[in-house]
Amino acid sequence: MILKQLHSEYKSYLAQLDEKVLMRNEGLEACNSLLNQIDNPENINEEVLYNSLWQIVRDPTFDPTKNDIVGSENLRLIQNEELVRILSNWSSEVYQVQELELEYKKFRTELIIPCFNRLGVSRNLNNALWQNGYTPTEALDKKYNNKFTIKPTKKDLNLREVLADVELEGIISQVITFNQVTNIQSRTLRDRIINILKIVEQEIKEK
């Protein structure tokens, strides 16, 4: 019973973690696209620009449910010593990833969004997001696709000036570092999950 519960939970954790890594990889691609447009402002693609800006506003967070087995008396019922060791370290390793994610959330709230508002791109960005329908990568049910018309701003908005903004360029560079470092930690966490699943499956088979 315990082993089957572990298997179900960690399969779910793996799917969630892979989703968050995918979101960060999408953010990295967006950053490369933005830096390319910054370096080559004569080739501005408005649709790509707004889509890329949106990608770096998202803040993927890995938040596995609190495991009832780890840290409880049930852990003593598991006989595989390697599995016990990995499970005992699980919470602290998850926390290391979550710390980085919380740091990015703060960076997004305190720097990215205010920068977009200062540059005047927020309305157009959100209009571009919703006008053709949008389903978040992290949506609980991918079948839902919402459309909403905000309409672009009527204020004069010079995208060349937006791309020339030094703060924006610095933010994009920092986003790359945040996503890369968090994905490195996430890959280690993924290895732990794969190992847990492998051991649990073997233990179930031998029962």
Q: How many structural domains are formed by the residues?
A: 1
- Overall pLDDT score: 89
Helices and strands, in order, run as HHHHHH
Number-wise, the strands total 0
Strand percentage: under 5%
With helices defined by DSSP (H or I, 4 residues minimum), what is the helix count?
6
The Rg value, from CA coordinates, equals: 21 Å
The global form is elongated
Terminal CA distance reads 11 Å
Question: Uncertain spans, ≥5 residues at pLDDT below 50?
Answer: none
Largest sheet: none
Helix fraction by DSSP (H/I, runs of at least 4) = over 70%
Structural class: mainly alpha
What does this structure look like?
This protein is mainly α. The protein has one domain. It contains 6 helices and no strands. The chain has helices spanning 2-39, 46-57, 81-119, 122-131, 159-163, 166-206.
Descriptive tags:
207 residues; 6 helices
Question: Summed up, what is this model?
Answer:
The protein has 207 residues and is mainly α.
Secondary structure layout:
Blueprint: H1 2-39, H2 46-57, H3 81-119, H4 122-131, H5 159-163, H6 166-206
Helix pairs in contact: 1-2, 1-6, 2-4, 3-6
